[in-house]
Write a structure and sequence with these properties.
- 47% of the residues are buried.
- It is globular and about 55 Å long.
- The chain is α+β, with helices and mostly antiparallel strands and 316 residues long.
- The strands form three sheets. The protein has a five-stranded antiparallel β-sheet with strand order 4-5-8-6-7. A three-stranded parallel β-sheet has the order 1-3-2, with helices on one face.
- The model has no long low-confidence stretch (mean pLDDT 96).
- β2, α2 and β3 form a beta-alpha-beta unit.
- The protein contains twelve helices and eleven strands.
Length: 316
């Protein structure tokens, strides 16, 4: 790990201002992803701004019947909150499906959203990776790609977004709140928050340098049956080959977002009209334009079968 300086921020705007004024600065909260990347020298910040004292650790009701989740609410606290378990069950189930208990105790809501890909070529500093070093190439393209993206990828990157929580937030239509260095705030729909790789895979979301996530807001509950189903190589502590977050209403209509298949949680709202017709019809629309490799072409039928299992579970 390379040397760095460290300080604790006093307010969200203070934290944003400090990071924005240092090109090599990064925010530090739970550190469950950043510190690992620093040990491997994939991330090499010169200054860490600790934001754990900013009191953004509360879950509060909103005026329109939703919930506002502070950026530093731990994954454990969020998954176990009575209101989340009752009204946003897909979120609680997705969080519990990810990581280990110890990691969930330390990981934060904002950090979970911002975690970086687990593409093996990103972690191997002997391999070229446009995400780690822009312009160096992508060893995953033409390499072993079983875990990697089948849709939304580009000629520069085929990495996947690794998280579970964000897949559930995508199906819940969450909104990400931020503060910038000048103190101005903005609200970003979760569907616009994570970006596709294009020619700039190193840029994974729409945040500016120094822009701090302060909260995630959930709209009022929409009812229905909430399901999160994750398919992985072993029963626990593994990233998804494919996951499905779904909310299905009694009449068979509903929403679904997919994890493990793209550079961001993958949801195609226009395809959801086909949900009452079954998983096959909906999946055709969800994965139209997919570009799988020989190694990961299995993900598309696997996603279809996983969605079918979700729909069947709701009907049973």
């Amino acid at each position: 790990m390379r040397s760095f300086t460290y300080e604790r921020a006093r307010t969200p705007a203070d934290a944003a201002r400090i990071v924005a004024s240092h090109p090599g600065a990064r925010f530090l909260a739970g550190g469950t992803n950043l510190l690992d990347l620093m040990k491997l020298e994939i991330e090499t910040p010169t200054h860490l701004v600790d934001v754990q004292d900013l009191k953004l650790d509360r879950i509060e009701p909103t005026d329109v019947g939703g919930l506002r989740i502070g950026a530093f609410v731990s994954n454990t606290a969020l998954a176990s909150d009575e209101r989340v378990r009752r009204d946003y069950g897909v979120l609680s189930r997705a969080i519990v499906a990810g990581a280990s208990g110890q990691l969930r105790n330390k990981a934060t809501t904002a950090g979970n959203l911002l975690q970086r890909t687990r593409c093996p070529y990103f972690y191997d500093t002997n391999q070229p990776c446009n995400k780690r070093k822009p312009g160096s190439g992508c060893a995953a393209i033409g390499g072993y790609s079983r875990q990697l993206a089948v849709i939304g990828s580009s000629d520069a990157c085929i990495a996947t977004y690794p998280g579970d929580m964000a897949v559930a937030m995508r199906v819940l239509d969450a909104t990400v709140e931020t503060v910038r260095a000048d103190g101005k705030t903005r609200s970003i729909p979760i569907g616009s928050f994570h970006t596709l790789p294009g020619n700039t895979p190193e840029r994974e979301n729409v945040l500016d340098h120094g822009e701090l996530v302060t909260a995630v807001t959930l709209p009022a509950p929409v009812g229905g049956t909430h399901v999160y189903r994750k398919v992985r190589d072993r029963a626990s502590y593994a990233f998804a080959l494919v996951s499905v977050a779904a909310i299905v209403q009694r009449d068979g209509n509903g929403r679904a977002a997919f994890g493990g298949v793209a550079h961001r949680p993958w949801r195609v709202e226009a395809a959801e009209a086909a949900m009452p017709s079954g998983a096959v019809e909906m999946s055709k629309a969800v994965f139209a334009g997919a570009r799988p490799t020989d190694d990961n072409a299995f993900k598309i039928p696997l996603a279809t079968r996983t969605l079918a299992a979700v729909i069947s579970e709701v009907k049973s």
